[in-house]
Amino acid sequence: MSSVYVHPIATDSDQLRQYVQFGVDLYKDNPCYVPPLILDDVNTLSPDKNPAFDFCDAQSFMAFRNGEPQGTITAIINRAANEKTGRKQLRFGFVDFVDDKEVVDELFEAAAEWGRSRGMTEMVGPMGFTDMDHEGMLIEGFDEMGTMATIYNFPYYPEHMQRMGFEKDADWVEFRMTVPDAIPEKYARIADIIAKKYNLSVKKYTSRSKIKREYGHAIFDLVNEAYKDLYGFVPLTERQIEHYIEMYIGILRLEDVTLVVDADGKLVALGISMPSMSEALRKAHGKLFPFGWYHLLKAIKGKTDVVDLLLVAVKPEYQSKGVNALIFTDLIPRYIANGYKYAESNVELEGNESVQKQWEYFERRQHRRRRAYRKSLV
Fold first, then answer.
1. Positive or negative, the Cα torsion across 180, 185, 191, 192?
2. Is the dihedral of CA 227, 320, 314, 255 positive or negative?
3. Of 314, 309, 312, which Cα lies nearest the Cα of 198?
4. Residue of 348, 278, 371 whose CA lies nearest to 36
């Protein structure tokens, strides 16, 4: 008889806090791990806080041995995604575990059985409720510090995935670029040509309330258009868009945000970046109080060597036409002025050549790779 007990987690805040805290504690001595803000993950897993529950069902599980937590996993059915693809797919995410075969097997079987009982025929992940959540298990770059937008995991995680019979479904790669001393000449020339050819211009803001009011909704409408064919993506609903406008735009450093508009002022491309929060999140240990807020505020307003490229999106009819050059000819001088030495690309599907082509004029290295796995449940 197994000494491991897997317990379904209720959606009250106390149990969800214990659930999220497990991962923070598991990596407390790892210098490459960047913890989430515990409250953010608790809210994401709460049906009362996350509008994705309008079209998702989920159950979180926690494994224990002798009363001590050993692992976590959340089983998710994204009904909108399954309707789009015609598949009966169970997602797993928010997964962490000790290096123990029995724990891992019991944890994944609990999630799989929950999915089977609801008619699901395959299991994929790690993925979240939507594309805005963390996705992809780290398989290369374990000695690199992560970013606030990505998952970190120990090297034994993919070993267990292979042992359980999971296979590759998709890979993402990440790049670290060196911020150049000046705008690359060819990049500047392309930007000038494209701006004149399509009558495009760069728009900047210094007021968060104004950018929310004038382009908040348009930003996420553009994300829906630009990302519609990407792996696992489902268009954001009106409730989600309103949720993310309030959640994200208020914390941006607006000088690191570039909007590209046409002659009518309609948004055709955007680049959203912000100072790396990795060190600040490590110092905060997942908590805003009593001192976590100070470290985060200092990172947003202060100096850091690294800038995270959180989001680059281009309207489909303008893709592969050089519009990205307009974004980065605006951002590079600001990066230089702010003292950024490196830029993190965050995740890009390995086969997305049009996205990776935008880095060809920069000194860069591909330093992390992560994977979504798939396994049949029948």
1. positive
2. positive
3. 314
4. 278
